Amino acid sequence: MARTNPAERVLYNYFRSTASYRVRIALNLKRLDYEYVAVHLNRDGGEQFKHAFQALNPQCLVPVLQQGDATVSQSLAIIEYLDERFPHFPLLPGTAEDRALVRQLALTVACDIHPLNNLKVLKFLTGELGLSEPSKMVWIQHWIGLGLSAVESSLARTAQRGRFCFQDAPTLADCCLVPQLYNAQRFNVDLSAYPTLMAIDQACQSLSAFQLAHPSRQPDAEPGA
Question: What is the pTM (predicted TM-score) of this model?
Answer without folding.
Answer: 0.94
